[in-house]
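Here is one chain, start to finish.
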Amino acid sequence: MPVMLEIDYDKCTGCGDCVSKCPGNAVSLVDGKPILARPDNCDYCTDCEGFCPTGAIRAPFEIVMADPGIAGKFTGLMPVFALSATSFLTVFAT
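Its structure:
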């Protein structure tokens, strides 16, 4: 399952907040800059993004329209949107 964090190394100060706040221990500092060292440990919680003081790390999402015929089978409710990240799919329902 591919996980794609976007890291802007021009903005990164190498403070290590993304590393210390990552609950899966997926992010490490190498030569003073963060890398996704253990992608299988990343559950896409976005803590690294939220705690980055310079906004150098992002965990982007894509919002797509849900197919009611498919998504409704998972929730039992009429879905409104699906939130798609690189590694998971969530259905919002009314």
